[in-house]
Amino acid sequence: MNELDIFPIDTVRDASGHLSVGGCDVVDLAAEFGTPLYIYDEATIRANCRAYLQPLRAQYANASITYAGKAYLDPTILGIVREEGLGLDVVSGGEITLALAAGFQAADIVFHGNNKLPAELALALDAGVGRFAIDGEDDLRALSGLADETGRTARVILRLTPGISAHTHEYIRTGMLDSKFGTPISTGDAERLVRLALDSPGIELVGYHAHIGSQIFDVEPLADNATALVEFALAMQERHGADFSVLSPGGGSGVRYVGADDGLDIGLLVGAIVDAVRAALPPGHEPELILEPGRSIIAPAGVALYEVGTLKTIPGVRTYVAVDGGMADNIRPALYQAEYTAILAGREPAGPTETVSIVGRYCESGDILIQGIELPELRRGDLLAMPTAGAYSLALASNYNMSLRPAVVVVNDGQPRLSRRRETYDDLLAHFP
Ligand SMILES: Cc1ncc(COP(=O)(O)O)c(C=O)c1O
Questions:
Q1: pLDDT above 70: residue 130
Q2: How many whole angstroms separate alpha carbon 419 and alpha carbon 76?
Q3: Residue 15 is part of a domain; what is its CATH number?
Q4: pLDDT tens digits, one per residue of 29-87
Q5: Bridge-partner residues for 70, per DSSP?
Q6: pLDDT over 70 (residue 170)
Q7: In terms of domains, do 288 and 320 share one?
């Protein structure tokens, strides 16, 4: 396998042995912005947006893509996905606030969440958020009450749990009956929710949504999910006269974190979903089809850059290589045994190799980024670049151990743009009254 196989499209190793992403030498980026540093390649983000939008619009005119901002959000990235013609799905008042501040149109936002707070619902209604993905009865009643009180009408899609199990880690599986998300179809609760939505003041029921999980490599459950949505929508139309103009079969496509991962072809996935929807819909009926990818847009565009610090060899057992980040900027390995790979980024990867564990600097034994990886013998000061680091890493970052969240740069054509500055100790102290 080529060492750059799963790096952003504009990644090369130059004549001096340095890694370069988006035309920017990572050694220079580390010197200018410090490490840990998250580097996002703009060309890769744009290519991933187009990989969805082009085949989708070619096969199904009334379609849109909303980027699932939970995967990673900052104003620069938002600007890029907006220029590419994507909408946005959000799950909090914070994400709405950031999107609006970045100039995103409220009408292009879908607001999800299993327990939207009253203040968040009010904020979204005031801003004119385009659609609310309603998780269940309580969520619906809360929105209806607020909308009615303020004389507004909220356009609503209902989040359903279709009973489809995707082969992925249990923490990122959401389509089964036993899930904290959505309203189950099989129990009759989803149908009761439809009735309630039709009877609720301030609510316009426009369609249905189901998201069955994340990091999925099989097209089949994703297509089955789309079929289940259409079948439910048609049944509700027949039984309750509930017309629908929106179908939203979620996101969830898997990406390659290590060379051995298969990956999922986006064109294939889009084709399978469109086919499933068309096969289930009566001829001539073309409701808006909304896909909601997060990870597959942003993960492959991101590279985490770390500097090697201490090394500890336990003879006959293991060598620990500690970097200057870890679970505070990327908790995925500790949270759900996510796998990553890394390469030497600041010099040619030559000479003898050894198998080491790449660990973080935080006070948890589980703070291990990569369990075992063969790398050239490392020394203090070496730079390590970890690909596919763009999704659910920084987005889940914390200040554990009072650490500072890293800086983010977006690179393109040799130009780095700081899109998020590194936190400072003053930022930490600012939280305390
Ligand atoms: C409702 C919903 N839509 C879309 C997504 C995005 O999923 P992914 O990043 O796997 O594409 C998620 C992620 O959990 C989600 O909960």
A1: yes
A2: 6
A3: 2.40.37.10
A4: 999 999 999 999 999 999 999 999 999 999 999 999 999 999 999 999 999 999 999 99
A5: none
A6: no
A7: no
Instruction: Please say if 49 is a catalytic residue.
Output: no
> From ligand 1's centre to the CA of 295, what distance in Å?
8
Pocket of ligand 1 (CB under 6 A): 68, 70-71, 89, 112, 211, 214, 250-253, 292-296
Using the 3D structure, point to which of 293, 311, 329 is the last residue of a domain. Answer: 293
Tokens standing for residue 15: 């004549």
Q: Of 124, 80, 131, 135, whose CA–CA distance to 108 is shortest?
A: 131
Atom 5 of ligand 1: nearest residue by CA position: 251
Whose C-alpha lies nearest to ligand 1, atom 13?
214
Nearest ligand 1 atom to the CA of 251 is 11
| Those residues with Cβ within 8 angstroms of residue 16's Cβ, 6 or more apart along the chain or in another chain | none
Question: What's the CA-to-centroid distance between 213 and ligand 1, angstroms?
Answer: 7
Number of structural domains in the chain:
2
pLDDT of residue 169: 62
Q: Are residues 333 and 264 in the same domain?
A: no
User: Do 220 and 119 share a structural domain?
Assistant: yes
**What pLDDT is recorded for position 425?**
98
Burial class (CB within 10 angstroms; exposed 0-12, middle 13-18, buried 19+) of 374: exposed
Which tens digit of pLDDT belongs to each residue from 331-360? 999 999 999 999 999 999 999 999 999 999
289, 147: one domain? yes
pTM of the model: 0.96
**What residue numbers bound the domain in which 424 lies?**
11-41+300-429
Give pLDDT tens digits for 87-104: 999 999 999 999 999 999
Q: Give, rounded to a whole angstrom, the gap between the first and last alpha carbons of the chain.
A: 53
**If we measure between CA atoms, which residue out of 384, 321, 352 comes closest to residue 37?**
384
Residues 275 and 412 in one domain: no
Pocket test for ligand 1, best of 292, 296, 392 (most atoms within 8 A of CB): 292
Tell me the CA–centroid distance for residue 312 and ligand 1, in Å.
Answer: 39
Output the CA 169–ligand 1 centroid distance in Å: 14
Phi/psi for 146 (5° steps) reads -70, -45
In this model, does residue 172 exceed pLDDT 70?
A: no
Confidence of residue 177 (pLDDT cuts 50, 70, 90): confident
Of residues 15, 119, 363, 429, which has the active-site annotation?
363
177 domain-assigned = yes
pLDDT of residue 173: 62
Minimal CA–CA distance to 53: which of 75, 14, 79, 82? Answer: 82
**Closest ligand 1 atom to Cα of 133:** 1
